[in-house]
Amino acid sequence: MLAIPFTRTRPIDQAHDAAAHFLSLCLLVLVLGATPARAQQAQWEALNQQLAELYGKGRYQEALPVAERALSIAEQTFGATHFNVAGSLNNLAEIYRMLDRMDEAEPLYQRAMRVAERSMGNENTLLAATLNNLGELYRTRKDYPAAEPLYRRSIQIREKTLGAESADLAQALNNLALLHAEQNKWEEAEPLYQRALAIYKKSYGEQSALVGATSGNLAELYRHQGKLKEAEPLYAAALAITEKLNGAQHSNTAALRNNLALLYSAQKKYKEAERIFQQALVIQEKAYGRDGSTVGTTLMNMASMYDDMGELSKAETAWTRVLGIAEKVYGKNHSALSTPLNALADIYKKQNKTPQAEEMAARVASLSAQK
């Protein structure tokens, strides 16, 4: 049922926590002797601070020229092989990654890793951060074999240099867990999430954003394992934290509502699931518009639930919207349409709407013939 490239659930990655690494780069600056260099260094520091603020607010397009300028000044001031240049390379790569410009980000991360390693050795914190961020890029591309060793090396460096209870270590643990979860390796992901969650609670307290995000990820893992009783309190805690910190209309709040609704649907608590799905939809439609792919995700989940309930009319309406969104997002001849088309063919068949069912089936056959 998940052939459509909408994401059914939304675990939360923590690569964006690299904002803390932007701030740490400002603290790593060495004071130089020459007056002109001091002036350039001060400008570099100011740009890093501006970059950190824009990054933290999610204003990545505005951050891009700032990151580019910071790198240029770093190269002029410190030289192309200096540790601070590695920091600016990592920062620019991270902005490109957040803008989904992966091909531009990748070589910058790789260069940052080389410079950091040559200038400060093979066990420094900036190298660990860049390893984690490049791992996130590969995970996003679903290049799991490339991502895993990067995460593992980042974990090894952070544990050795920062200690076993470092929040930066927890970040890499969470992201490696995400990698395993995306491959349905639940038993490998679970202890990583648990360890990350324990570190975050100790570092930041029970009500921090990272505790909420990791609780939601662990809840999602338990739901996939069928451990619904274990998942429910974690979802509730994650939703309460996220709503308190980010507000009821935040995209992460909607993602958690979608996932909690999936849990209730699995428990056959359909009225509660429907109510929460609808709350998620309201947030998502306001944030992304009625035809956003995230809206399609929640509608697809609702449609599947209505089908399970035998509410065929509601299922038909929801799947029709999913199909319309998929057509706008991917075009009318994309293989992504197979999922809603097949679902609608099945719904129409159950309703004895034979012409409509045949039309949907014919479109699926046409898509298959194009492969």
How would you characterize the overall build of this protein?
There is one protein chain. This protein is an all-alpha fold and 371 residues long. It has a domain at 1-127: Tetratricopeptide repeat domain (Serine Threonine Protein Phosphatase 5, Tetratricopeptide repeat). It is 79% helix and 0% strand. The protein contains 17 helices and no strands. The protein has helices at residues 19-27, 35-56, 60-78, 83-98, 102-120, 125-140, 144-162, 167-182, 186-204, 209-225, 228-246, 251-266, 270-288, 293-309, 312-330, 338-350, 354-370.
CATH topology of the domain at 1-127: Serine Threonine Protein Phosphatase 5, Tetratricopeptide repeat
Assigned CATH class of the domain at 1-127: Mainly Alpha
**Number of E strands:** 0
- The rounded Rg comes to 23 Å
* Overall 3D shape: globular
Count of individual helical segments: 17
Ends apart, CA distance between termini: 19 Å
Let me know the CATH homologous superfamily of the domain at 1-127.
Tetratricopeptide repeat domain
Going by helix content, strand content and strand pairing, the class is: mainly alpha
Order of helices and strands: HHHHHHHHHHHHHHHHH
**From the 3D coordinates, which CATH architecture of the domain at 1-127 would you assign?**
Alpha Horseshoe
Fraction of residues in β-strands: under 5%
Overall average pLDDT:
88
Most strands sheet: none
Roughly how much helix do the residues carry, as a percent range? over 70%
Low-confidence stretches: 1-13, 15-35
